[in-house]
Structure formats: structure tokens, C-alpha cells
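One thing: could you explain this record?
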Amino acid sequence: MPRGKVKLAFIENQKARKSSFMKRKECLKNKLKELSTLCGIEACAIIYSSYEPGLEVWPEDNTAFQNVLNAFLTKLPMERNKFMSNQDSYIKERISKVDGQIKKQIATTRDFVKAKLMSECLSGKVSLAGLNSKDLNNLGSFAGHELPEIEERIKVLKSDALASQLQLPEPKEVEQMWIAMYQ
């Protein structure tokens, strides 16, 4: 039966903490063994705790452990630290990533709000006279940004409209209408 999600927090109970450490230490060693076998890599681990005297190393074969450790230590410090991570660097990296996602979402939301306002103005639900200067500027920048796409759509509609003899405005006329609305 699968366990539920474990709450990542310090275990207050000393006995439970030691028991959890022992179980997880064995799991870690098993995962390292699987990783080195499946991926054909050399791996080692040094485990130090206050629960056991001295250091514990994996693999238990000292020569294999020493080979991996020597290969690591012979690399330049910059190359060694390239892929190393600690809690501070991990948290900074995550914060930076989430910050980027938030900025992207804010920009997407801003564009959606501008498009919604544009749609409401064009459908007559909102009057331009009732908008403040910030909304008008946002609407103008959105229209300016979307103008090439609007002109292209007008061309497509106009070519389709020739068959049905509808009269659509020229792209320049649309641009002039937008300019007139914001003056």
C-alpha cells in the first residue's frame, strides 16, 4: 500500500528521527547502486551522522570509493562546483524560476485585459468616453501592437468580401480611425 505524501519538516521526536534516518540512508544507498548500474556511471556517497560513530561510505569497496573520490578531486574547483547545489542555491534558483513565471503570467494577463477591453469597446459595451487615460493608453498600445495583424485580417476579409460585394474599410482608414479615437 503506497504511503501518503510526507511532510518535509524537521522530525521533533528523536527516536522517530533516527529511525527515519536509518531507513532513508539505506534507500539512498540502494538508489545510488541502481543509478550506477542502470546508467553505467561511477557514484559514491559519504554519510556522516550523529547517530553512528565515524563516516559511512558507499560503495563499501574502498578502492571503488577512492577511485570516484580521486576523479572528483582532480577536477578544477570551478568544474567541480559547476553542478553542485546546496539549499541556498537551490532556493535562489527556484525563486528566480518562479519569479520569471510570475512575470510571464502578469504579461499574459495584461494582454488578456487589453484584448477584452478592446473587444468591449468595439462591441459597444464600453464607451471610450468613460475610460481613464491609463486605459486609453493601454488600449492604444495594444491596438498599435496588433495593427499589422488587424490589417492582414482586413485584407483576407476584403478578398473574401469581393465575392459577396461587401464594403470593408482600407487598412489605412482603420489606422486613421484608431488615431482619431485617441486624440
About this structure: The chain has six helices and two strands. Residues 87-123 form the longest helix (37 residues).
